[in-house]
Amino acid sequence: MSLPLYYYLSITAVNILMSWTLYLPYRVAQLHFITVANMAISGYTAGYLVMALHVPFGLSLALGFLLGGLIGYVVSLFIGDAPTFAVVMVGFTFIYITRTVIENTPAVGGTMGMFGLPNIGGSPSFHRSAIIAILYGLVILVGFIIHRFDHSSLGRAASAVFADKDLAFSLGVDIRKLGMLLQTFSCTVAGGTGVLYGFIYKSFHLDFYTFQLVGIAMTIIFVGGYTTMWGTVVAAPVLYGVPLLFPPAIAAWRIVIYGALLMLVMIVKPEGFITRRTVFHVEAFLSRSRTKLNNSYP
Amino acid sequence: MRKGKFVVLAAIAAAFLTANLGFAQAQVKEWRVPFLNCLTGPIASIGEYLQWGAERAALEINEAGGIKGKPVKVVGIDTALDPQKGSVEMARVVSENTLVALGPVPEPVIMAAMPIAVENGMMSITATTSYEYAVKFFPWTVSWFPPTEERLAELVAAWAKLHPAIKTAIQFVEPYGPWPGMAEAHVKGLTSAGVKVLGKIDVPTDAVTFGPLVVKALEQKPDGIVFVCNAEKIAKIIKELRARGWTKMDHLLVFSSGDAPELYAAGGADINGVEIYNYINPDINTPRWNAFKQAYMKAHNGNQPPSLSTNYYDALYMIKRAIEKTAVTGNPKKLKEERKMIAEYIFNMKDFHGIMFNWNMKDGVPTDKPTFIFSIQNGRKKLIREVRP
Amino acid sequence: MQALIAQIINGLSLGSIYVLLVTGFNLLLLVAMIIHFAYPQVVVFSMYITWVVLLLTGNNILLGVLAAIGSSVLFNLLSAPLFQKVMKNRGEVDINSTMVLSLAMGMIITDVLSHSFNHGLPITFPEQLSGNSPVLRIGLITILRGQVWSLAVGVMAVSGFFLLLYKTRAGRAFRAIAEDPNGARLVGIPLLKTGLESYALTGVLGGIIALLLVALLGSASPGLGEQVANKVLAVSIIAGLGNLPGGLVVGLLLGILEAVAQGYISGSWSNVIAFVVMLVVILMKPSGLFGSKL
Lengths: 298, 389, 294
Known about the structure:
CATH class of the largest domain in chain B: Alpha Beta
Shape of chain B: elongated
Helix content of chain B: 40-55%
CATH superfamily of the largest domain in chain B: Response regulator
Shape of chain A: globular
Number of domains of chain A: 2
Strand order of the largest sheet of chain B: 6-5-7-8-9-14-15
Order of helices and strands of chain A: HHHHHHHHHHHHH
Number of domains of chain B: 2
Largest sheet of chain A: none
Largest sheet of chain B: 7 strands, mixed
Number of strands of chain B: 15
Strand content of chain B: 15-25%
Number of helices of chain B: 13
Oligomer: heterotrimer
Number of strands of chain A: 0
């Protein structure tokens, strides 16, 4: 695999995972930006463990997931069923707290950042293979979980909450527990993603985890489609990859193009490019193809 | 039929994508020097003049016959201050037959992209970052500046000695990259000059008004103030100080990273008399610098060239000399060894003729670059003192 | 003691920025059901247009003022159909979609400003418009002209718009078409005319805010809007979405809290302190301190 392709694929996987961590809570209409803070907290913690305490990468990654989940769970006790904007505030607050704490903590590099993380397995090629394998393994695992969730009674309950919270409540949906579940899971995934993000670059810097990440994730979700997990899968590689191919004169206007695309999608196709109907048609097509294939072999 | 068309289109898209992600090979007809720069985004204005400086050098070199008879081309690659973009671009650069690169700019992209250059044994000259960042990637980059603690302490001590009336001082410090480290070096210097440092005022990155910070500073009654924050913020803090009655403008010192167009654009006449230190002296009289200055002013509506504009100009000349003085041929088959040759030569380059002065590199660090203290008058810097190591 | 008074005055000055922006933000919410996340960026855009006109006309203040108000009104009127379309697509009022749309607008505005105006460098305004001269200075206590204007106009704007929206027929019409367009049409409120008037009104306010920020700050940069956008949204949430008097109180309190935190604790922790306090408030009262008006 070429080096540029490795970085493209690994960062795309991070963008997919990061966007899914926003997609899930948004299923119950919560904009859960704390996941960005989770990425930073788990990332820096894992980096410190590896660099200063020589903890193996695998254990640090696991701890990164755990830490993310723990933070997500504790916070969800307070905001499991909070209104959208209260959840937004929590996210902003955690992002500010995380940044300030890291800036003022020399042990993790402070404002300079953390340099020179070691290669997993001791060699650059093994490191790259491991990162890609772990990332895409995670994408498949998380994707599977989200897919099962979306097609379960919990997923239907989430859709009901999104459509009408009061109606969902009156139908017996435990909104708080559902919110807590989604927030905890998304924070867990965010924690591990944050660790892997830093290990792609083999360094950690505060500016890897900014409000800009929130903007990127929001764009991916809303352009790709927020009603189904597949929108993220399609939008993430396209929104990251296409600008890399722009000639310099057009690349200079990349952000304007992103913004215009987002506006266009909100106006013309507010549910995003990949909607539930699109997924239904694709699933039906695949089902017909499978039936045809089965029928052609007696 | 629709399915077939879809498959063909997908295959074409995949081929296009992979071709542009590093499988393309080209014949070397010119010395292509990629420059990973911030051409868009929050610091696009800085990226513009860095790019201009590098392209100016390329123009001069080509007018004089190129490098070993072949023209040099600086290829601006926008990283948009985005580590995600920076890493892929560096990966692309490293995968092509690139001998040496310029940049990246600034620190977050350096952190994301330089490990790639290091891993692949390619030098990328980061000419706008501090020693503390550059040293982490030695020997595949060089530091444009000497170690912060050594040089800045000496410099600020020299400044304090220029103003014996300064018995106490305070610093405005923004938490970004190497700046807190620079502030600590200032403390060392001020203390060695007998100045009592009253503390530091933390400047939040998103501050839009500075009244509270200025009151906090003035409450401590400092004789002098040192600024270690973003150029625009420095200008605004100085305006706030003036509005609150501060008159001793020569007791204000701006650090080198604050010497940027934003300082002058936002500060205007309010920063007259303020002192500033930097590594270049715009009033040096050399033919190359005079020509550079004239060309810059012509291209930028009469504005003076900012202090960083010559960094990548000099960096490209370093590359030129390295190619000329070594056995580098640009042959793709010898890429690995030629990358190493260039890096080793630049890492310990002797008597490099920069646009303003000559200096030596020893183990990637400039050993004898002068520093200067200026007084700002009507948007221009007037030299007060040169400080040599 | 002097320092404390000085910090409180600084806090009121900082708070007045939030009050002005939150008032415009809340007004758009009340008359058009739009969460305009990028409202600060739109105001900064008007500041830039003012600067361009001043540059082209040799600092003609009257034309500069008209440019600020005109550009803000025009921007509002041009963006109104986009928001209306987005909300219409949903079949019901959807605040999240307007927030996302405005986020996109903010991205575009900031990028255009950094590309196309003054090479991305900060812009400064002439002395006549910027209020940097002191009206009072006693020791550490300094009150600048711009601070007086922005606070005074901020309070007057909140009071004025509150009275307009809740005590006048026109204001009731604005709120009616925002909350229930069909119901408003049934009772004979002309939708198009009233809608345009409401957008123009918020545009006028936006222009005035731009001028007051010019007076208070004396300069602007492309990232100025983004720097305050999070806090403006936070103030609006804490006060209660759409609550005009709440926005005034919380905006000023936040300004004072930040100023005191910067003055007595640390500049780098002031954001954390401010947001943690706001977080505690919102967790205790999710609908806002003074209740949402939605």
